[in-house]
Amino acid sequence: MNTPAASALLLVAAAATFTHGCGVFSAANDSGNARFFSIERAPPGPTAESPEASKASGAPASLRIGRVTGSPHLEERVVYRDLANEIGYHREVRWAEPPERFLERQLARALFEERGIRQVVGRAETTLVVKLTALDELRYGPHRARVQVVAKLQDEHLVLWEETLTVDRPVASEKGGDSAVATVEAMGEAMEVLVERIADRVARELEERRRAPPPRQPESPSVEGPSIEG
Q1: 41 lies in a domain?
Q2: For the segment 91-107, what is each residue's pLDDT rounded down to a tens digit?
Q3: Integer Cα distance of 154 and 157 in angstroms
Q4: Beta carbons of 90 and 156 less than 8 angstroms apart
Q5: Lowest CB count within 10 Å: 26, 34, 60, 110, which one?
């Protein structure tokens, strides 16, 4: 029976449910106490031309940076692991932008600014594709930060080089007691080392490819007419 009293009770119950749901949603998305970090540190200043670039003769090698992506578990919140196969997220320590964007900018700086490789923005013969698979604080074993990527250098037909690269760096305990700053700094150091390794390998592959002699074209068989005797 739909009485006024029953209707009033239904409205109260609905209001309580809505209020509770809003509270949960607000708590899950509250970033009022969040701290936002960038993994990038300002470059120390103009860098000298790398040995690979200075030794190169003729036209510089060219390269396009293709897709730089991140694993699904890498998001705004910084990842930690208390076990190798268990992922946790810091509630208040977050990235200012998707981590793969940091990686993409550092790769561009290392390849095009520091090593003098010519950047191609359209279709290119040689493309670098990178996936960021780990940017984690490891709290099991020695306290350290880990950065891992899968890098692939390819042309239109072949994969020239593909490798999974991993760099760990210890998290310093003496940072004024601020573990978030220490963790982010360790991650930044690890990413810088990893980017340098990728850039060195790519520069070497491009230089070897540039210096390689062009493939020989198959010779066309000569066609001789029938000999006439007599």
Answers
A1: no
A2: 999 999 999 999 999 99
A3: 8
A4: no
A5: 26
Which pair of tokens denotes residue 133?
């698979």
How are beta strands 62-70 and 118-119 bridged, if at all?
parallel
Structure token pair of residue 1: 């029976």
Block residue for tokens 């209020």: 19
CA 127, 203, 130, 153 torsion-angle sign: positive
Task: Evaluate whether residue 42 is within a structural domain.
Answer: no
CATH number at residue 78: 3.40.50.10610
What is the identity of the amino acid at 70?
G
The rounded distance, in Å, linking the Cα atoms of 60 and 207 is 9
What are the CA-CA distances from residue 54 to residues 48, 50, 198 (Å)? 10, 6, 18
What mean pLDDT, rounded, does the chain reach? 80
- Looking only at the bridges linking them, the beta strands covering 159-170 and 144-154 are antiparallel
The pLDDT tens digits of the residues spanning 23-75 come to 322 333 455 689 999 988 765 555 545 544 444 456 679 999 999 999 999 99
Say if residues 64 and 154 touch (Cβ distance below 8 Å).
Answer: no
Model pTM?
A: 0.74
